[in-house]
Specification:
Layout (H helix, E strand, L loop, with lengths): L3 H7 L4 H8 L3 H8 L7 H11 L3 H4 L10 H9 L9 H17 L2
Helix pairs in contact: 2-3
């Protein structure tokens, strides 16, 4: 179950305003909220980024809304400048860092 409606209502947004911000039609958003259709992966990422939550949280697979970019923020504060990366690139970077942590434990 997607948490789009829950997140939208928590922020006091109308379907029309959120749909406009996401670049989709209001009826598309309504279909997502009512589980008649599902957004593609690109739209899931855009929605998660909009609400600053993880895709897993958006999909109902995680309890915490924590966005994966806290790790990227920590890396940035450690000296690297990754501020120009796209959200997808930041996610890939986070995944790679996780991989390296596991490999070199």
């Amino acid at each position: 179950m997607l948490r789009i409606k829950e997140l939208r209502e928590q922020r006091g947004l109308s379907q029309a305003s959120l749909a406009s911000s996401l670049g989709v039609a209001q009826n598309t958003l309504s279909n997502w909220e009512n589980a008649k259709r599902a957004p593609d992966s690109e739209k899931l990422i855009r929605i998660a980024d909009y609400f600053a939550v993880s895709v897993d949280y958006l999909l109902g697979r995680a309890v915490s809304p924590s966005h994966g970019n806290e790790k990227t923020a920590a890396m940035v504060s450690g000296g690297g400048d990754y501020s120009d990366l796209t959200p997808e690139a930041k996610t890939a970077l986070n995944d790679y860092v996780d991989f390296l942590r596991e490999k070199y434990k």
